[in-house]
Design goal:
5 strands, single chain, five-stranded antiparallel beta sheet, 9 helices, DNA polymerase, domain 1, OB fold (Dihydrolipoamide Acetyltransferase, E2P), 3 domains
Length: about 190
């Protein structure tokens, strides 16, 4: 099993990154919440990974912190939740927010995740609640300035240069947004 990769961030394309480790390039699928936190291209990065091996697929999934990796591993054990669905869930909300939604039986938050309707959200709650009883995930204590910095890094990961990304985030009027919300608002203002 490949549990962690440390190397140079070479490329970011949507939800996939390429990390060079001594001349070997690892293609790693990542949720957007992790991609937002990546350093700039060419910098050193450490990613916690989980390798999925099937007859027709070898998929390396990566996460910036071990909380997301833990949540991902629990999610893929759930009936009807594969790796792609688990990555979508963790792209939409942080591991701590997802755990809070499950613990509070917050169906509305779960239905905001793409491809999860009310019935699927209810089924997920029933199947996941007991499995997540003993999991405790610390939420990141981000300050608004951390959110802005992470949002700038997220836009850079999406292909904007650092100056453009900083200007886009500075143009967002609402100061009370988290990283994901800042990026969404910044992108809305562009289009």
């Amino acid at each position: 099993m490949i549990g962690r990769i440390k190397g140079t961030l070479e490329h970011i394309k949507a939800t996939e990154v390429l990390i060079d480790v001594n001349g070997i390039g690892y293609e790693i699928q990542m949720p957007m919440t992790s991609i937002y936190q990546l350093p700039e291209i060419g910098e050193s990065v450490t990613v916690y990974t989980h390798l999925i091996v099937r007859e027709d697929l070898h998929l390396l999934c990566g996460f910036i912190d071990e909380n997301e990796k833990t949540m991902f591993k629990e999610l893929i054990k759930t009936n009807g939740v594969g790796a792609k669905m688990a990555l979508t869930i963790l792209s939409t909300m942080s591991a701590s927010d997802f755990l809070k939604a499950v613990n509070n039986s917050d169906i509305n938050s779960l239905t905001k995740i793409p491809k999860i309707g009310k019935k699927t959200a209810e089924r997920l709650l029933i199947e996941i609640r007991d499995r997540f009883k003993n999991i405790s995930i610390e939420s990141n204590n981000h300050t608004p300035s951390n959110f802005k910095e992470d949002a700038v890094n997220g836009l850079v990961a999406l292909g904007y240069n650092n100056k453009e990304a900083k200007n886009m985030i500075d143009n967002v009027q609402n100061e009370d947004l988290n990283t994901e919300e800042l990026i969404k608002e910044a992108l809305k203002n562009v289009f």
